Amino acid sequence: MTMRCRSDRLRRRLLLVGLLLLCGTHRRASATRPAAGPIRVAGVVTVYRHNSHADVLLSRLLQTDTLDGKGHDSPLQLVSLYVDQRPKGDLSGMLAASHRFSIYDTIADALTLKTGKLAVDGILIVAEHGDYPRSPNGNKQYPKRRFWDQVFAVFRHSGRVVPVYSDKHLADNWADAQAIYSTAKALHVPLMAGSSLPVTRRRPAADVRKGGKLREIMVLTYGPTDAYGFHALELAQALAEQRAGGETGIVAVRCLTGDAVWQAQRDRLFDPELFQAAWNRLSHNSTHGRPLADVVDQPRLFRIEYADGLVTDILELNASITEWVAAWRYGDSNAIESTLFWVQDGRPAMHFTYLLRGIEAMMVRGKPTWPVERTLLTSGTLDALLTSCVQGGKRLATPYLRVAYQTDWRWHQPPPPPPTRRWTDQ
To answer: What predicted TM-score, i.e. pTM, was given to this entire model?
Structure first.
């Protein structure tokens, strides 16, 4: 064995150890493959264009974690790809030729490499972006259920499963999300999903005290709701699940829009101190000292009521902010904490690297890094909130969202990012 091979093997092992530490797990790692060997994964995506989610996730397996060939290599090796739509600007063919992986016409072929049996060690489903219809409540209907049904079919036929990560929500509606979750549980599929916001850098480095008694959470976000509002739900749930007793589930939701939002503010429906604490964490805003009501385009207030009495209020303030911030109040001390959930607005968009670290850790260990129940809950909550919006702000009881779970996942501050490049840079 050459010195270079020994060095590469040692570097890969150290990287895998670092992944597990960074993702904050306290369980003993039990890798499903030798640390020295590549973990062969299949990609199942809607579109693969520059800066699409497929690009900023899967391209890190090809172009290092900084998307320029100068960063760290992933322990995951992309060996196959299924692309549902190939609009103008599609990158998949060029990348397949330059990085020597195969593109297949069916999901089954991508997972089996046309051998008839499952032939990969993990699967990344990235169903985000593309030309798809919208549901009656305005949620974009990505083909996640179709993708999952075909993945499950390969698992059943092969008699074995591998870890799967599904980008963002499990599905655009509760019925599909619950069906995907239940089937994965029945087949014992190691499953993760969700947003990059829970794992990204925070300014300051703040988190809900583990086992703390929470009274209320306030999140400021911007739209569109089905795309960016989902990130707000995920970061809020990542905070909420740390509270005393763990997650108890959601009993009701309500969406207020337009003038009803400002009336709710005047009526102190949500905590004004929490709002101000969150607002003060913004690095910039576009109000220029004017009242929010004069600036914000179509405000929305999402109110989420938990079974144990916790309330989360999410304010969508379009045209005034383009960041995510949160504040929370403890029920025992009345103390308030707050932080900004940072994203890198440009290449290499390192918040996706921080997300990939958690995915890699799951693929290595064969166990989810954070609970998929978080995203089951946020998927159903988004669907219910959008339904409340189209029903004129009606409070909707959600007994089906009584999803209770415990987690030992804890957020850890990732390392500082490299300099930001323009989104147009390759």
So the answer is: 0.92
